[in-house]
Amino acid sequence: MTETSSPQPSETPENVVGNQEAAASSRPDVLLEQLLKPEVQESLTTLVDNLPKLTEMLTVMTKAYDFGKSVATDPVLAEDTMASLSGFAKPITTAAKGVASAAIEAGDRVHAQGDQAQIGVFGLMKMLKDPQVQKGLRYAQAFLDVLNERDQQNKR
Fold first, then answer.
1. DSSP annotation of 20
2. CA distances from 111 to 75, 106, 108, 116 (A)
3. In this structure, are residues 144 and 150 in contact, taking their beta carbons and an 8 Å threshold?
């Protein structure tokens, strides 16, 4: 059901021209009414008084914009920045990859052994002599001490 729309009476060319003329003739009246309001006059006076400051601010902002634009589009600076960031991030990513690969390998070993390998009392005693286990236990103890201290402070 497609209906063709006929022009509305307000959309005829004569009415459109008439509306534009009415709007144009009412604009000066509306503008004059706005300019006669005391708050508008006060705002305009303040604006005119502050034009030198605004001009100075605009000049500074334009210079800052030009500088920022030149820095942002400078390929040498962008390349140097990326090189600096990659130099900073490379040791961190290398360490993270090492820890992740160790965790994956440890997980693979645990899955390979399955439930066959049980750790008994003597196995536990042997593990406690390992320096890495000692280091991990010291870290865990220090971490738990810090959590306990914070918990005690929060209760006060």
1. H
2. 50, 9, 5, 10
3. no
- Which residue, 81, 132, 83, 86, is CA-closest to 106? 132
Query: pLDDT tens for residues 127-148?
Result: 999 999 999 999 999 999 999 9
Q: Which helix (H) or strand (E) holds 56?
A: helix 51-72
d(CA 4, CA 66): 55
Dihedral of CA atoms 102, 105, 111, 112 in degrees, nearest 10, equals: -140
Q: What is the DSSP string of 59-81?
A: HHHHHHHHHHHHHHT-HHHHHHH
Tens-digit pLDDT profile for residues 21-63: 555 556 778 888 888 899 999 999 999 999 999 999 999 999 9
| Report field, pTM of the whole predicted structure over 0.90 | no
109 — pLDDT class (breaks 50, 70, 90): confident
